[in-house]
Amino acid sequence: MTGLLRKAMLLACSGVLAASSAMAAVPSPADSSVPCGLNLVGSTGGVADVRGDLTIIIRDLALTPIAGSSVVINFNACTPDIRVCSVQPAAGVTASCPGTVGEISGVTDGSGTVVLRIVGGANNIGGSAAAGFKCATVYADGVNMGTINVGAFDQNGGGGVNPTDISLFLPDSFDGDFEGRSDYNCSNTVNPTDLSLLLGASLGGGSGSSCGAYCH
């Protein structure tokens, strides 16, 4: 009887350990680091603008970073104006084009971190309709990690970031409506700080070109 009891306890412990191990590999939205917003950028010489760096850290319930986690940002709710490039120049950043806008994905490193630098833009033709606040959804291994705002320095999606984009931005800051594409600091408002960030992108030289082809 004692031997049978010992075996039963060992099997029970093994089951608990296996369950704990499985749970440890599950991303925890509350314990991971997902920024409030991201900014789509252009590129220069085939190099995506560093102003677009988005750092995401995936952790489990025990606050342990998860290496090799597949992180996906789905932009399909960001209609009608947000667009992402079908070919992304930054290493480790992959685009796929299902749905209305598309998805961007990357894989976390040994520290559970992935840095996504996403080339894309808006389709602002002058006061045109725009997506609202936090239109994109972030997933890690299929787990919904929450929503994130999408700003676009390249307001018209052509010619890189230049003075035309600044002129297209200005109505977004004055018309009283909210346009997520122009909220670069994720404050849920469009204000002078956003203009300053756009000027930096325009004058910085890192977004001299738009992408050649958008997902949709």
Explain what the structure shows.
The protein has three helices and twelve strands. By secondary structure, it is of the alpha+beta class. The chain has one domain. A six-stranded mixed β-sheet has the order 1-12-11-5-8-7, with no helix packed on it. Strands 2-3 form a two-stranded antiparallel ribbon. Strands 4-9 form a two-stranded antiparallel sheet. Strand 7 (94-96) and strand 8 (103-107) form a beta hairpin. Helix 2 runs antiparallel to helix 3.
Quickly list its features:
216 residues; alpha+beta; two-stranded antiparallel sheet; 3 helices; 23% strand
Based on DSSP secondary structure assignment, what is the total number of beta strands?
A: 12
Radius of gyration based on Cα positions: 21 Å
The order of strands across the largest sheet is 1-12-11-5-8-7
Question: What general form does the structure show?
Answer: globular
Helix content: 10-25%
What is the N-to-C order of secondary-structure elements (H for helix, E for strand)?
Answer: HEEEEEEEEEEEEHH
Tell me the number of structural domains.
Answer: 1
Largest sheet: 6 strands, mixed
Bin the strand percentage. 15-25%
